[in-house]
Specification:
115 residues; alpha+beta; Arc Repressor Mutant, subunit A; three-stranded antiparallel β-sheet; 6 helices; 50% helix
C-alpha cells in the first residue's frame, strides 16, 4: 500500500489510514489482542492466507508505528514474540465497533465462521 504524503496527513482519518490501512494490519492486531503474545509461526498459522513476505512486512510496519512490540530472545533456535503495545491497545475499541458493525450488516447466509 502506498504511503500518504506528509501534506495529505493533515487529515486525521488519512493519517490513521496511513498507519493501519490495508488488508492485514487489523487482522494481525486482532489476533494479537485475542492471544496476548504470539510467535511468528503462530501468527502465520492463525492467518493462513497471508504470505510470509507480507506478514513480515506488516509486522515491521506495525512495529515502526509502535503498535506492536517485538521481543527477541537470544537463543538457538531464535525465538521472537509479538504483542500489542499500549498504543496498539488503544485501537481495541475501534476493532470492537468494526466487529459489531460487521455482525449487524453482514449479508444473510454468511455466518461468522465463513470469514
Amino acid at each position: 500500500m502506498a504511503k500518504w504524503s506528509k501534506e495529505e496527513c493533515n487529515c486525521a482519518i488519512i493519517y490513521t489510514l496511513s498507519v493501519v490501512g490495508g488488508k492485514w494490519k487489523w487482522l494481525i492486531m486482532y489476533k494479537l489482542s485475542e492471544n496476548g503474545v504470539l510467535r511468528y509461526g503462530e501468527l502465520k498459522r492463525v492467518l493462513p492466507l497471508i504470505t510470509h513476505k507480507m506478514l513480515s512486512q506488516q509486522l515491521k510496519e506495525l512495529e515502526v508505528e509502535q503498535l506492536v512490540y517485538r521481543k527477541e530472545y537470544q537463543q538457538i533456535p531464535p525465538k521472537v514474540e509479538y504483542s500489542l503495545t499500549d498504543k496498539g491497545r488503544t485501537l481495541l475499541p475501534i476493532m470492537d465497533l468494526m466487529s459489531q458493525w460487521g455482525s449487524e450488516n453482514r449479508p444473510p447466509g454468511i455466518s461468522p465462521g465463513d470469514n
